[in-house]
Write a structure and sequence with these properties.
The chain has 185 residues and is mainly α. The protein has 7 helices and 2 strands; from the N terminus they run H-E-E-H-H-H-H-H-H.
């Protein structure tokens, strides 16, 4: 007769939680790629310089609700997958990829350490700081090699995109089914 291991159920539940986090992160990365491809097809003005996309929305979601590391990885996976699916001839811009990583990590760090209570305030502050650091500082540095100083027009563009994404995130948060999906994370 063997002695039951009291930690066995805990290991199973931890493995189940990790698998749920992995699957949800992968789904958010895929959603980011699809949103990016759709927006780049229909909301692309000026050869990519005036590109309106909402691909950071799932990355910010991952950062806030799944943690900074998962948010960062969702950003990297979505950016590199978007690159692989695009007809570009130049190598991936790793500074832009780092910007996508920074969006997820910053949103996660803000949610984990600055505004810990789930809700609208957490979403607004986490997403705003993530956009400022990732989309308005790091990504333009990476895009400078292609567009030169014209890349600065993307900063005011994100002054419009970021509030729209924040509004969408807040509207999603108001939905009970959405909250239920992320409450236990």
């Amino acid at each position: 007769m063997s002695i039951p291991n009291p930690t066995a159920p805990n290991r199973r539940s931890a493995a189940k939680a990790a698998l749920k986090r992995l699957v949800l992160g992968a789904m958010l990365a895929a959603i980011s790629v699809v949103i990016g491809m759709f927006c780049k097809s229909f909301l692309n003005f000026g050869g990519g310089l005036w590109r309106v996309t909402f691909e950071n929305l799932p990355i910010i979601l991952a950062g806030i609700f799944l943690g900074p590391l998962t948010g960062g990885m969702v950003g990297v996976v979505s950016d590199l997958t978007s690159y692989l699916l695009s007809p570009q001839v130049y190598p991936p811009n790793l500074v832009v990829t780092f910007g996508a990583f920074a969006v997820g990590v910053t949103a996660g760090l803000m949610a984990r350490f600055v505004v810990r209570e789930r809700g609208t305030k957490q979403i607004v502050l986490s997403a705003a700081v993530a956009h400022i650091i990732g989309s308005m500082i790091i990504k333009p540095i990476g895009l400078f090699q292609f567009y030169g100083w014209a890349v600065l027009v993307r900063i005011p563009l994100y002054l419009v995109i970021a509030p729209l994404e924040i509004l969408l995130l807040c509207l999603l948060w108001r939905q009970k089914s959405f909250r239920k999906l992320f409450e236990k994370m």
